[in-house]
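Let's sit down with a protein and look at its sequence and fold side by side. We need material for that, and I hope you will provide a protein of your own picking. Once you have written the record down, we can walk along the chain together.

***
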Amino acid sequence: MATSVAVEGQRSVNGTVSDQQTKKLTDLPTELLELILCFPVLKHVDICNVSCCCKRLHDVCHGRGKVWGHQYKLRWPRLQRFYRQNECCDWLREYKTRHRVGIQIQRTVESISKRFFTEVPCVGQVLGDSFAEIEALGMPEHFCEDELLFILNFDKRKSLTLKYYAKKILYFLRQQNILRSLKSFLEQPAEQQSALEGAVLVDQYCNPLAEVTLVGISAQLDDIAEKVKKMLRIKNASHPSLRLAQGDTFAVEDLELQRQVLWALNSVLYEQLQYKGNEFDYYNPLNSYIHQVLLRCTGIPISLSVLYMTLARKLGVQLEPVNFPNHFLLRWCQKPRGSEDIYDFIYIDAFGKGKQLRAKECEYLIGHQVTADYYSAINTTEVLLRMVGNLLNIGKKGEGNEKSYQLLRDSLDLYLTINPDNVQYLLLQARLYFHLGIWPEKVRTHKLLSFISIGGRARVDVCRLPQVLDILQHIQALDPSQHGAVGYLVQHTLEHIQHKKHPVTPEVKRRGPSEHVEVQYSVGLIMKHKRSGYNCVIYGWDSKCTMSQEWITTMRVNQLSKGANQAFYNVLVQDGTCRYTAQENLEPHSDPLEIGHQEVGRYFSEFADTHYVANEELQTRYPEDMDKTLSTVQERYHRPTAGSADQEQSKHQAM
């Protein structure tokens, strides 16, 4: 190293420092060198260069030292939670591994758009082979997740296509981990299973990108429990529940003391915190997610019951879940434990602000009589099946968009993890995959034919186990009478595989041909609907309406001034829908804004203030549209005003 340090005041006659009094940088103590090399301005490349200078600096920059530990923590701060404080680790090796994972993840995500652009962009289909590629890396999953989060958190307006597919991969990765946790949870003895933990796992699986944790949910409930204790202190300052610390388990035996706890719980939950049943938007899936119930203070009977039961247990009162039809309840025993007489219980309606009911009074909630069996307590697994069943029914009633399909798929995955032999839902799952186009791409044709011909008893040989066929085989084994439905789906799977061998080349639409002359607008332009007022962005067009006559009649296209004989545009709408709109109903937006649609990244790579930039795949489909878009944008939004034009003219005259 050329850098040196001189002792002050020890100079030669000519003012230079003598060689004998010079100290090199490498003579500094190791601790000081590490401090210097940990300056934030130094990057990993600088450390590599420094370590190559000499043996002394190479030793200071060893893999387990502070320098590489600092570089690792500086570049990937989110990963610190995976290491113990002051853990001795080969930071250089960790850095290299994380760097390699980042490069591979970037390559994988970048390749997805080219492979899946023309097909239905559902999570399962996109991730079939892509997830296998990530698994093949053999790297820690938290490295993969960290790189995906890095992509998602990069400049909000750029790399939209990369973000679109990174989000799908992250969704899938997290779901696989949650599913493993759910399976482990279900393997526990019934008495060790917590309804709250199960509800959190359901919540996490349906919302894998949200930061929902059991620790976080439990902390919120602990806060509510502390509020209940304060209320309880007003009623009975010496109540035994007040002596409970967080995490303690204790059962209050005295019935009057239990009644005091439930009074305080109702006061806090329904009066102070204003929790209530969501009667006006009952079928909103958010009502079933515990973190949303806590956030919005509203839910449905089962989600509110899980919270109520958990809070009561924290305060020493044991309540049991009751699978009452159409209205989930809790029961509170009024007699010594072990009684199964339905009249020995008070039934609590958590949806109805904790109202306490006698056995036959519960029937007023549903408007008809039920047998005694419906008043029995159920275990945690049955609670989860009821909760997931609610989500499944919401998904089945959905609007047929990606969001409702995703809910249906997620709830089916959960239900069949808990109850894997339900033939009805297995068949529904197979039909859903069939509808979404989640196909086995590597199935051997003769094995498929064999599977059909012998009633599904053959074992289908696949390179990567295909989900549809695996489900169908399971159905056939459980219920041979379903052979007709199974054979139908397998036959169509085979036809799809044959079709995939000869894919149809997508139409390339140029603006030159005479039939496209009347197409005024281009992909990427941000538009406003003249009649409905919604904001949208164009991602495709046809020179004339290509929908069926039935659609044209239903949508009253013939009532338009130009009817179906005008350009129609595929647009992504701000409200999350996709629409097919006539040219005469659209106009360029006067003040372009970002369109908050989940599919924007599938078609566009960037938001450029006044328009969206089509990604490579969309530009291949519409090769001349971006020039048209830029021309329109320049003309509408960047045209000089009269004042600025006069100023420019005056400036030139002055010169």
Observations:
- The radius of gyration is 33 Å.
